[in-house]
From TrEMBL:
This is Metalloprotease PmbA. Signal peptide: none annotated. The lineage of its organism: Bacteria, Pseudomonadati, Pseudomonadota, Gammaproteobacteria, Alteromonadales. The keyword Plastid does not apply. SUPFAM superfamilies: Putative modulator of DNA gyrase, PmbA/TldD (SSF111283). Pfam families: PmbA_TldD_1st, PmbA_TldD_2nd, PmbA_TldD_3rd. The gene is pmbA. GO terms for cellular component: cytosol.
Amino acid sequence: MDQAIDAVEAAIRQAKKRGASAAECAISHSRGLSVSTRLAEVETVEFNQDGSLGITVYRGQRKGSASTSDLSAEAVRAAVEKADAIARFTSDDPCAGLADADLMAFDYPDPKLFYPASQDPADATEWALACEQIALAGDPRIVNSDGAHFASHCGFRVYGNSHGFTGHYMSSRQSLSCMPIAKEGDRMERDYAYTIARNPAYLATPEQVAKEAVENTISRLGARSVPTCSVPVIFHRDLAHGLFGALATAISGGSLYRKSSFLLDHLGKGVLPQWLTIDEDPLVPGGLASSPFDHEGVRTTAQPIVSDGILNTYLLTSYAGRKLKMPTTGHAGGIHNWFVRPDKAHQVEGLEALCQQMGTGLLVTELMGQGVNMVTGDYSRGAAGFWVENGEIQFPVTEVTIAGNLKDMLMNIQAIGQDIDPRHGIQTGSVLLGAMKIAGS
């Protein structure tokens, strides 16, 4: 990492020597290993090492950018020269520039995102093979497999700018997944399970992943469609984060200043039920979306995104903030660990309790297609899952489409389960929504 820090600081110095009014530079580097198996045989073993330096040079309100994967002094100097040459010929952009100096994270804590892990191909192969072998033997109806996959990656990020800020941190991530295929009669179904964590000690075991994958796959046998209807819908915890991810996209600066959001002019207004709050905490040790500073060097801080259903803040970079005449919120690069918190009256024990509360409706466990219009909020996606009656799962469902409008869907959340999914930067349990249109047979 020392070489990367030196390269970033050298690039900034060279830009200033060339007369730039400001400059910023970042390096992201990752190294990793992934192993895929299929039918209990090793299919692929891949090593990767990626990294590049990106430099942006400002001349007043004009900017130019260039990049290089070579960190030698000559290559860095050439990248600065190219960025500067571009800046000389671009048009003025009144919103261009660095984030304000007083927002820089000059004193930031260790985010504790790096945990040493083996990147020995033998260890990775052992995990993947063990997981798939257990899955293949888990039930006589498991007849095939789309394989198992183990991956381990680590890396670092360095960012610096002409305010005198240089920050860096290391990170790691490990994952294991498995996708068996089951057959009953002439129908075949597949499903999967996975585990992911920065700290390898927090990964589920191959046995646990295989068991969950087999259970998920077997449960889908005998799936059929249902008649077109309008019923409540539960988004399983594996999918529920996508609802709040859509909210994040809708309140991001790029969507707002381009007027391509279904939540334009909703700051200070209700976007969720009054009993629902979303808190952000960027400094959770080992958090999958933790970061001590954003991609512009702005310090990140814990903050309520939505309080009692009311939208407290947009998600802004410095550029988007200037477009909207608002300050940056430290979200260059994305969100930082969202925690979806219902009040006690609307939080139920888990998925079974949500089904009991729903009574009759559709439990969605898989979504297909990209039928989401972020401008209007119109939502229409292929779905699979389970039909629920009298609070009990009756049979698996396939070949249906669920439709609604995201603005209405978010406001029509009825309850949230305590079965929180820790494998995502948006942590939420399964979500029960009011009636949606189900298009089936």
